[in-house]
Amino acid sequence: MELPLWRALTGYRILTLGYALALFFLNYREYAHPPGAALYMGALTLWMLLTWNRVTSPERCTKRFLVADLAVALGGILLTSVVDSAERIDGGAATLPSIWAGGAVLGCAIKGGWRWAIVGSTLVAAANLAERGGPARDTVHNVLLVWVSSVAIGYIVEVARASERTLARALQIEAATRERERLARDIHDGVLQVLAMVQRRGAALGGEAAELGRMAGEQEIALRTLVAGGLLPPQASPEQLADDAELLRSVGTAPRPPEGPCDVGALLAPHAGAAVSFAGPGTPVLLEAAAAAELAAAVGAALDNVRKHAGDGARAWILLEDEPDAVIVTVRDDGPGIAEGRLAAAEREGRMGVALSIRGRLRDLGGSAELLSVPGQGTEVELKVPRGSGVGK
């Protein structure tokens, strides 16, 4: 955001130096002490040659430089009353640095905001009034113009910096949230289902296995609570969220699928079996590998829900459709359906199968997951992924 302002200030200083030199050469013989004026203009030109690039970036424009630059401008304004004639000063002739002095004030405004702008413009205003010997109308006009414009620019810079910081924090929070959701999906698809299976099998076997199943059930509940409550922890600072995102990226992440197109049908065909039917086009249905893998994982999560909630005798059908602008997969079962309000209750309990493993994946791909369920008539999940989508888009 600041770089264009610093470049503009560099151009302003160079152009206004040329203007000040042109005024000096045009009025050289009218000065009361031409050599003294020439000495200052030479020093000003040398100062510019040595420091022209100091205002090209905030790192180069230090506080010490701004103080020195402002001193050069103030010295030139006050020296004008010594080297110029009283008639020219009373007639409103420009000071030696002329409008170049405004560059020093603008540098303070861009570097330190409106407070620094007030200090710099007030010092320049005082020097101009001292040079004229009083508040002449044109001097007051110029002083107010520099003061108001520099303060306004300083305020705009502060607002822009605050907006930039807010945007950066929002992006950090979004990145951390997305990473937490991705890990929660992986946990749900793997660890939680293994713990649930151990709990069921342990209870069926009895004895020591039952105790192991009980412990697995307790860990499943604890982990579900952690997953549900850890998506966006309250009272966490943006810096903590950014650190969390960096940590999550560095540990426990699954390898990314290879780049390039991938046949979605080839990923979904292994689900077909005695209780699951698969139908799709006779030609490959291509998606970017990352998007295809996420879509296949969402289909797997939908089939897991069928196996867990629709009963042992339920059947499921997978339909793959290849549309010009999207790939659509429909998963339908003939189970008892989902009671109204059950999904919201499951999400509150930390059971994120639909919220994260299905809808979360499709949302990250820029797609959608529509669920239609009528009690007693089964459930249908339609997964739609637009062409050209990938993870994180």
From TrEMBL:
Domain Histidine kinase/HSP90-like ATPase stretches: 290-389
Keyword annotations from UniProtKB, A to Z: Kinase, Membrane, Transferase, Transmembrane, Transmembrane helix, Two-component regulatory system
Superkingdom, taxonomy of origin: Bacteria
CDD domains on file: HATPase_UhpB-NarQ-NarX-like
The keyword Plastid belongs to this UniProt entry's keyword annotation: no
Regions crossing the membrane: 12-29, 35-53, 65-83
Entry-linked SUPFAM superfamilies: ATPase domain of HSP90 chaperone/DNA topoisomerase II/histidine kinase
Keyword flag Coiled coil: no
Pfam families, A to Z: DUF5931, HATPase_c, HisKA_3
Official protein name in the record: DUF5931 domain-containing protein
Organism of origin: Streptomyces blastmyceticus
